[in-house]
Amino acid sequence: MNQVTDLAQAALSIEAGLPMRVSPLQAGQGLHQHLPALQQLVAEHLEVSGGLLFSGFADVDVASFQQFAGAFGHPLLSYEFGSTPRSRVSAGGVYTSTEFPAHRPIPLHNEQAYTTEWPLRIWFYCAQAAEQGGETPIADSREVFRRIDPAIRQRFAERGLLYVRNYGNGLDLPWQQVFNTEDRQVVEQYCRARRIDFEWLGDDELCTRQLCQGVAQHPRTGDWVWFNQAHLFHLSALDADTQEVLVDAVGLEGLPRNVYFGDGTPIEASLLDEVRGVLDACTIRFPWRDGDILMLDNMLTAHARDPFKGPRKVVVAMAEAYGQEGFQ
Fold first, then answer.
1. Closest by alpha carbon to 274, among 234, 247, 218?
2. What b/e readout covers 138-171, taking b as 16+ CB neighbours within 10 angstroms?
3. Of the candidates 140, 120, 122, which has an alpha carbon nearest to the alpha carbon of residue 301?
4. Which helix or strand (DSSP H or E) is residue 289 part of?
């Protein structure tokens, strides 16, 4: 660190941990006034701590959030092959957080860990904190990896995972929304380029199957992380009544989403219950404040969403696409 940056960081309050908390010592100061120091902090600490929380900076809005997220050397990404509903907030790569009903929790996950391409960096901006609840819990994916039963970890690492998705049956997102196009040829090109098997069914239905990683190694730190969404895609993620209704309606093959081991054999629900227990044990919560920005290394740190009451607005940006070559 050079002397100028050292002096700049002296004007900040820095609290170690996950997330590392960074605030201006003088009230009324904006992100842009500290940008070089904040960029240096991210360069030095993001891949160590796993995440930084920028809090107490003045005049933060969607536009300044977009500028801030774009100030770290990589253009912001579009949200492609999504598994949850989001809406574009700006043309520059800012989206709403997952648009699930307020009463439903969203379990811990790493963004797009259900495919072989994902963003290495993800930001969340809290424009309006909920009246009650609505936190964005996080967890150290390295610690999750360490705590998972070694026998389970080995099965996921060696066998990989097969994600199966059905679109167009009215039970999940339509393929047009997932692939951001109305053109079937564009969908087919996207799938072929990423080794996603696809099959058109009926008039407007699509099934995709993709072999993906169960664990992953960070490309720069070398850390091994638990990196998948099996606990979200598996039928056991739903309550018993919903499981029964869905299976009766469309059968196992027609479920909106499901996941198997890479060879197509079923994953035991009890195994995923153990995984969920580890994720729960590793969960870290902090209260949102209006204007907060959370920056995560998407491989090192998982995120979630708690249920909430009252209005809530949190938007998201992602950058630095990365692919897991071993499963492509």
1. 234
2. bbbbbbbbebbeeebbebbeebbbbbbbbbbbee
3. 140
4. none
Euclidean distance between CA atoms 316 and 296, whole angstroms: 11
Cα 131 off chain centre by: 24
Local structure of 129: helix, strand or coil: coil
Q: What is the pLDDT of residues 194-252, one digit of tens each?
A: 999 999 997 789 999 999 999 999 999 999 999 999 999 999 999 999 999 999 999 99
- Which two tokens mark 15? 């609290």
As a whole number of Å, the CA-based R_g of the chain is 20
How many CA atoms within 13 Å lie on the side-chain side of 126? Answer: 25
CA dist 62 → 76, 124, 314, 317 (Å):
14, 11, 10, 10
- Note the pTM of the prediction, 2 decimals: 0.92
Q: How many helices (H) and strands (E) does the chain have?
A: 10, 19
Looking up tokens 């940008």 gives 35
CA–CA separation, 204 and 174 (whole Å): 9
Question: Residue 261 in contact with residue 126, Cβ under 8 Å?
Answer: no
Phi, psi of 108 (to 5 degrees): -60, 140
Rounded distance between C-alpha atoms, residue 319 and residue 296, angstroms: 11
DSSP secondary structure string, 150-177? HHHHHHHHHH-EEEEEEESSSSS--HHH
CA distance 44 to 28: 26
